[in-house]
Amino acid sequence: MNGFFYRKRVPAGLLLAASLVLPSTSFAEQKIGKTLDEIIELAKSEPPLTFATTWEGEIIDYEKKGFKDKYGLDFEFVFVEGVESRERVFNESLAGVNEVDLVNMSTELQDKFIEADLIVPVDWKGLFPKIAKGNIRPGGHYLATGWNQFVLAYNPTLVSEADAPKDWQDCLDPKWKGKIGVYTRPLPFIQTYFKWGRDKAIEYHTALKDQNPVWTSSTNSSVALLAAGEFPVLCGIHYHAVKNILRADPDAPVKVVVPKLFPIQAGEKVALMKDANSPNAAILLAGFLATDGAPGYDLYGRSDPQTEGTDAWKYSKEAGAEPYWSGWETSGDEQAEASKNIVEAWGFPKGK
Description:
Layout: E1 2-4, H1 36-43, E2 49-53, H2 59-71, E3 75-79, H3 82-94, E4 102-104, H4 110-115, E5 119-120, H5 124-127, E6 143-154, E7 180-183, H6 190-196, H7 198-209, E8 214-216, H8 219-227, E9 233-238, H9 239-248, E10 255-257, E11 261-273, H10 279-290, H11 296-300, H12 311-318, E12 322-324, H13 333-345
Parallel strand pairs: 1-3, 2-3, 2-4, 7-8, 7-9, 11-12
Antiparallel strand pairs: 4-11, 5-11, 6-9, 6-10, 6-11
Helix pairs in contact: 1-10, 6-7, 7-13, 8-9
């Protein structure tokens, strides 16, 4: 099953997890191996796991093949995007009809899933020593496997390379008034908010609103509108959204500018669902994506610019850019508050 979810299946009532699951007020009702060898053995008797994430393009086949080659296991991929689809996972898990084993979590919902006791903390570092400590949210509830990278983009048939914005402040140049696109879910601006501080960030976003931008509603459509010439410049967008458009049409008139302050964040944050049918296989897939499967994120545009040798590391170096992530401590409720403050500065009543 590859596509937007769901078909339903009733969660299997399995046994209590052992020592690899970190202490929690409520444990998952599955049998999870104590060691990596035990996890591998138990995974062989589980049905193919279901992974809900945002992938598009070559990464799907790349990771499926790699996972199969390493462990002899298959997984089903279902597409999710935005907060609403993860809210559906939340509600269906509460109702006892969830079919997702491993979920790529929206940042805004991280704390909500933990507070509802719907996900299982895992000792990721103990099981997979190659994983960088910083890729694990303290407590083990989330593991970063892919990274959002936020860039500027322009249409080269409308704007020369010399005239294109090079950094965030350039979006405020009066020559772009009424001519820039801005995505209304303010993820591209969250890290600059924390880097600059609230006051400077609100001042910036009030000025950005005064530029009369064209507000856009999704990542891929934002880039598609740029390519169609609806506006010449896109101020803040996910790099992987640009990759999606160029994958579909390599000749699309879209160019990327990596800004000097290069905001990044853990974009694919995977979590083991408490009611997973295939918990051991889900742990293996998450660990694989964070280690041997990591090169697949170059294909998707979500590799880690903090890791030497990745595509993101190379083009950030070429641009003389400073990758910046404020860390896990600002990736839950604090990010939700930052989003709310930004969109209120834009004149909207609440965050998206």
